[in-house]
């Protein structure tokens, strides 16, 4: 199958998308092959397939998503794609580990399923809450939700089972869609600094997630100020990903993200191979 796409005018030599979801994610739409074909046609250097595992839902009931089966399918499909595109695209096996501290046994089991290249740590919902996507925000509850978000995020960072922390400021993606609710992330600078400093101390990466550029929030997650602050606090590793859930979004916003990294003083970004950071020059 050939997915047509405009080849990027390569200002950047090693354009890579390290956060993508195939049909093996509950909210994904297209096959791993379609995602890889798009990346290859665009001239990307690498693509990492990071299908979802929500650890708090891993041991569910009969109606729940069979995450183990989905992950094993993702691993299998990624291995097939790697063989098919060996001369056209570097393809890495990854996983997005959601809420790893809400069920540590599930996180441990998931991480034993494969020799991953890359593990994303993320927080999509607070304990005993639905995904931030589904919550109703009011001026009265938004501060409490964000305080709880940063508390649990720090717990995940302290647990230290991942390679990069995904879409920091994730709730803002949905808060921004409500014009009646005002929230200023800078009011949480102390909490942000704790997370960023601990990431740097642990030699973990911060993800620049470009999905916000396609959404109402209109900026990367996190934004330029937070990325710059990560560097000031000693952060060395930054990854970049589109968070694509369909082939048409593969590579979306990656060049914009690289420009932001340059503005923040980074000369390299990171891809992971066999859980080891590989620094690539931006220019």
What does the model show?
The protein is an alpha/beta fold. It has a single domain (16-281), classed as TIM Barrel, CATH 3.20.20.140. 33% of the residues lie in helices and 18% in strands. The chain contains eight helices and nine strands. It has helices at residues 32-42, 67-84, 104-111, 142-159, 170-175, 189-201, 224-232, 254-263; strands at residues 16-20, 46-54, 90-98, 118-122, 164-165, 205-209, 238-241, 268-273, 276-281. A hairpin with a 2-residue loop joins β8 (268-273) and β9 (276-281). α4 packs parallel to α6 (189-201) and α6 (189-201) packs across α7. The chain is globular and about 55 Å long.
How many distinct helices?
8
For the termini, the CA-CA separation is 32 Å
Q: Main sheet: which strands, in order across?
A: 1-2-3-4-5-6-7
- Number-wise, the strands total 9
Largest sheet: 7 strands, parallel
- Corresponding CATH superfamily: Metal-dependent hydrolases
- What structural class is derived from the secondary structure elements? alpha/beta
Short structural description:
By secondary structure, the chain is α/β, with parallel strands linked by helices.
SSE arrangement:
Blueprint: E1 16-20, H1 32-42, E2 46-54, H2 67-84, E3 90-98, H3 104-111, E4 118-122, H4 142-159, E5 164-165, H5 170-175, H6 189-201, E6 205-209, H7 224-232, E7 238-241, H8 254-263, E8 268-273, E9 276-281
Parallel strand pairs: 1-2, 2-3, 3-4, 4-5, 5-6, 6-7
Antiparallel strand pairs: 8-9
Helix pairs in contact: 4-6, 6-7
């Amino acid at each position: 199958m050939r997915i047509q796409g405009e080849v990027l005018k390569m200002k950047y030599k090693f354009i890579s998308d390290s956060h993508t979801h195939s049909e093996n994610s509950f909210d994904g739409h297209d096959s791993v092959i379609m995602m890889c074909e798009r990346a290859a046609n665009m001239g990307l250097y690498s693509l990492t397939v990071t299908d979802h595992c929500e650890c708090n839902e891993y041991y569910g009931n009969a109606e729940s998503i069979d995450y183990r089966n989905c992950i094993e399918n993702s691993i299998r499909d990624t291995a097939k794609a790697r063989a098919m595109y060996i001369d056209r695209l570097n393809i890495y096996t990854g996983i997005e580990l959601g809420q790893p501290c809400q069920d540590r046994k599930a996180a441990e089991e998931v991480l034993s399923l494969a020799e991953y290249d890359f593990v994303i740590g993320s927080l999509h919902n607070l304990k005993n809450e639905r995904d931030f996507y589904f919550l109703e925000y009011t001026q009265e509850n938004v501060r409490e939700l964000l305080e709880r978000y940063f508390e649990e995020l720090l717990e995940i960072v302290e647990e230290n089972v991942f390679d990069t922390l995904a879409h920091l400021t994730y709730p803002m993606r949905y808060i921004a869609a409500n014009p009646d609710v005002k929230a200023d992330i800078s009011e949480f600078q102390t909490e942000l600094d704790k997370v960023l400093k601990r990431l740097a101390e642990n030699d973990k990466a911060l993800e620049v997630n470009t999905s916000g550029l396609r959404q109402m929030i209109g900026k990367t997650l996190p934004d330029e100020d937070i990325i710059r602050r990560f560097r000031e606090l000693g952060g060395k590793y930054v990854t970049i990903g589109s968070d694509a859930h369909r082939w048409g979004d593969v590579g979306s916003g990656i060049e914009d993200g690289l420009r932001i990294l340059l503005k923040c003083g980074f000369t390299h970004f990171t891809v992971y191979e066999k859980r080891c950071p590989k620094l690539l020059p931006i220019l």
